[in-house]
Amino acid sequence: MPANKKKSSSGFMQKNSQLLIPLVAILILIIFNLIRDPSFFSIGMVTNNDGYPVLQGNLISIFNGASELVILAMGMTLVTAASGGQDISVGALAAIAGSALVKVLKSTEVITPWTVALGILACCAVAMLFGAFNGTIVSVFRIQPMIATLILFTCGRSIAYWINGGATPTVSSPIITAIGSFIPGCPVPTPILIVIFMGIVLGVLFKTTTLGLYVQTVGINQGAAKLNGINPVAVKLLTFVILGVCCAMAGTIGMSRLSLINHETLLLNVEMDAILAVAIGGNNLGGGKFNLVGSIMGAYAIQALTITLYAMKVPSTDVKAYKAIVIILLVVLGSPVVKEAFRKLKNQISAGRFLKEKGAA
Fold first, then answer.
1. Percent of the chain, pLDDT > 90?
2. Of the residues 115, 213, 227, 244, which has the fewest C-beta atoms closer than 10 A?
């Protein structure tokens, strides 16, 4: 086999192995739910309060409910790959972005499409600014990402509180309602469409630029990247800015679902789920090569587990404990130690078969 074919084949195998953990997790959840309730994944069409037909079912709830987490996981993947650490302030930053959006919307008596567009641009700008703040501390001052983002994690929700003068204002607008639920005439929940849009944008960005290669190179060896003309500071800073945009979109969805901003509860504790989605997706939390598809699948696996537990009537206070047990198992199975043990076992089995066939011959 030619060297280039061997190289591409090994790359393909490595990429597939990264997706093994999320695939196994999702497969186990599917089999378990089909055994427990064969109709668990059935999808139906119902009429909502506005008289429009919309999709309904546990599968739709999984895709819809995971929307914010999926978007944050995509941004977290880039930050992890480039900096070798995680941003634990994404929930607080989403709250800040949501508060900025509400501030713009409440500045006018009538909320028009132009007002909403301006508000979304404003919340993206604010989130990018705070993302650049985190990125500067990490890339310029070389502070470990989890420690650097602890600043915004601690004070971010207070900033969101101050933006609207300590209030939790509601937003009465059919446009905002449509962003958080359904566009009139469209049966698919709007948050799912936003996730698809964000995935396409990032996919096009990686296909048309060398950003993905630069991120991986900086994450694998920052010194070598610098020698090859890549600016590690700029690459890391850019990943945090992109994560800021993801936080803005997640905050917009979260605020639109309830048509109000509550800085204390908006995407509370989503940081840990976002990090776990990246880990379950087969990505190295120490930086380097990454797989956005794996992170997306990891986020959906987490949400599928949550919906499964609720369907089993597990009390909401116990859901986190059950999730923690399952996630520990998944992370341990995907750890380098376990992978190495499986590799050795596979080699031993292959060697045994070879010797057996040789003896028979």
1. 71
2. 227
